[in-house]
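Re-run with default settings, no changes from the original entry. Doing this only to confirm the output is reproducible before filing.
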Amino acid sequence: MSSKMLTYILKRFLMALLTIFLVIAITFFVMHAIPASPFSSEKAKSDAVIAALEAKYGFDKPVTVQFWNYLVNILHGDFGLSTGWVGNTVMELILGGFSYSARIGFTAGVIAIVLGVILGSVAAIRRDKFLDKIIQVITTALVSMPSFVMATILLLVFALQLNWLPSLGNQPGGLVLPIISLSLYPMAYVTKLQRSSMLDVLGQDYIRTARAKGVSNTGVIFRHALKNTLTPVITYAGPMMAYILTGSMVVENIFSVPGLGRLFTNSMLRTDYMMIMGVTIFLATMIILMNFLGDILYKVVDPRIDLS
């Protein structure tokens, strides 16, 4: 690995750390700007009890001291105690919900990339033919439809009307519809990216040279063209996972999946500030790291890119 590449990775990593710090700071101070106490909504709580609870959770200290303690605890993987789920730490609850969200997000992302690359390549190879037009019509429709709308349609059709799949995400097979809901939009977008990239590559001189040498159409596609068309797809992979993670917040609630989305919604209903901050920072960190990895893979796939 060249020194220029190492410098680029270090620079991107430091920028990622700075962004994560800013997310933590903004989230912390915004939540602490809310005048109400997380215990003020509880019934039959006297002022003395509320004061004791605030002392237990460290809310009685100055905000700057709380922020410093919060940063130190985060470095040790400790997001504090949940005030809405008494007896549970924020990290325990986040990891429990993330086990569902990660399964849904990873599977949806893989489906979106694999099918998008295949459909985009087919559309480019069959340019202006009937199959290409069908793919373009379908992908245009899917791109214009938000994931929560698609989730509602799939729920009504396949769960309630046809009764082919369960409507609840915690039932056997219950993750199928959420995965499909989250994968359709990015799949359509990847298809459009891949089609455009493939058309550009197929018009390059080295492709014409390969064909002039007698290389079969299949060989031209798989041996020469396909690898060079993946750069835009890899670039989109980071934002795609961000879309899937944020979109899953609504989709998980539609299908009652016990993931981070449902956890985040319930934490707001319970005014669990520690959980709200924990989920926000956790998701933001995941998204920032995915974009960081996408930037690195972008250079690995296409070494011609100027890192300056």
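The mean pLDDT is 81. The CA atoms of residues 266 and 272 lie 8 Å apart.
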